[in-house]
Write a structure and sequence with these properties.
Elements: H1 2-9, H2 12-43, E1 48-51, E2 64-71, H3 76-92, E3 103-109, H4 112-118, E4 119-121, E5 128-130, H5 132-142, E6 147-152, E7 159-160, E8 169-174, H6 181-195, H7 220-227, E9 240-243, E10 246-251, H8 269-280
Length: 285
C-alpha cells in the first residue's frame, strides 16, 4: 500500500524511481535464476555414478577417491565381480589395509554408446584417450581429485600415469592380460603404485621414466639418503642394482609389486613407508 500511495501522491520522480527499483528487482531475479542454472549445469554429473555397494562400513568423508569405469563388459555382474577382487585385495595390502577409512570407491555405468563417445582407442601410448569434459565432470561431482581406473574387458594393455596422490590421473587395466584373479589384483596394485608416485623397479623393461624418489635412485649415494636408515634395521631393504629399465640405478628390495607383480605379494618396506605417509597426510590437508 505504501508503494502505491507514494507513486500517486509524491509525483513523477518517485514514480520513475519506483519503476527503476522494480526493474532492478526483475534483473536481480534473472541473474539469480541464471546463477542457479549455471551451478547445476556444472555441478551435476551427466552419467550414472554410484558408491561401491560393499563399502557400507567405510567412512565416506575421507579424501582418496577411486573411480572405476568399465569398457566392453558384457554385463554389470562381471564388472561387480572384478571390482570385488580388486577392492578386497587392496583392503588386505599394506599400507592400504591400515587406512581403508580414508578411501572412497565409486563406479560409473556407461552405455555402449557413451563408451564409444567418451573412450577412444589410440595407436600409441596410452592405448585409450578419455574425453576431457568427462574427467572435468567427475572432478566437479566429487569436488576432489581422483584416480580413474578404466577396466577394459577386451584389452591386453595396462598402464598408469606416474602421478601423485593430490592429482587426478588415469589407470588402464587390460583385463585379458591377466591369467587369473590373483595376477589381475596384483597388476592393479602395480599400476595404482605408479599413480601415487612409485617407479618401476624392473631391470629388463623399457626405460619409460628417469630415476627418482622414493624407490629408484640414480646412484647409491642418493639411495643412502632416501632409505639408508632402513638398511640393516628393516628386513629386505638393501641397495639392489636395477630399476626403471636401467641396470645402474638402485632400488630398495629384490622383489616388490613394483618389480614383479606376478610373483611379489607386497610393495616392500620402503614403498610401504612412502604410501603410508602420503595416505595419512590426507587427513592433515
Amino acid at each position: 500500500m505504501r508503494l502505491w500511495h507514494g507513486r500517486f501522491t509524491l509525483g513523477q520522480g518517485i514514480e520513475n524511481t519506483t519503476v527503476n527499483i522494480l526493474k532492478g528487482i526483475i534483473w536481480t531475479k534473472r541473474l539469480f535464476l541464471l546463477s542457479v542454472f549455471i551451478y547445476f549445469a556444472f555441478s551435476c554429473f551427466a552419467y550414472d555414478i554410484e558408491l561401491y555397494s560393499e563399502q557400507v562400513s567405510w567412512q565416506f568423508e575421507q579424501l582418496f577417491n577411486l573411480v572405476f569405469c568399465p569398457l566392453n563388459y558384457r554385463n554389470k555382474e562381471d564388472l561387480s565381480r572384478d571390482m570385488k577382487v580388486l577392492i578386497q585385495r587392496l583392503s588386505k595390502t599394506k599400507p592400504f589395509n591400515e587406512v581403508v577409512e580414508r578411501i572412497r570407491v565409486y563406479y560409473i555405468n556407461l552405455s555402449r554408446e557413451e563408451e564409444n563417445t567418451i573412450l577412444k582407442r589410440t595407436q600409441g601410448f596410452p592405448p585409450l584417450k578419455v574425453r576431457q569434459d568427462f574427467l572435468d565432470g567427475i572432478s566437479a561431482y566429487l569436488k576432489s581429485n581422483y584416480k580413474l581406473i578404466i577396466i577394459d574387458a577386451s584389452g591386453f594393455s595396462s598402464c598408469a600415469e606416474l602421478s601423485s596422490i593430490d592429482k587426478t590421473s588415469l589407470i588402464i587395466l587390460g583385463r585379458r592380460r591377466y591369467k587369473n584373479e590373483h595376477s589381475f589384483a596384483r597388476g592393479f596394485l602395480h599400476e595404482l603404485g605408479h599413480s601415487l608416485g612409485l617407479r618401476d623397479e624392473c631391470v629388463n623393461c623399457q626405460e619409460l621414466c628417469p630415476a627418482g624418489p622414493p624407490n629408484c635412485a640414480p646412484t647409491k649415494e642418493e639411495a643412502k639418503r632416501w632409505w639408508g636408515k632402513l638398511v640393516g634395521s628393516v628386513p629386505r631393504v638393501h641397495y639392489i642394482r636395477g630399476c626403471c629399465g636401467n641396470k645402474n640405478y638402485i632400488r630398495p628390495t629384490i622383489a616388490s609389486l613394483m618389480n614383479d607383480p606376478d610373483k611379489a605379494e607386497d610393495f616392500g618396506p620402503v614403498n610401504e613407508r612412502y604410501l603410508k605417509n602420503i595416505l595419512e597426510g590426507l587427513s592433515k590437508k
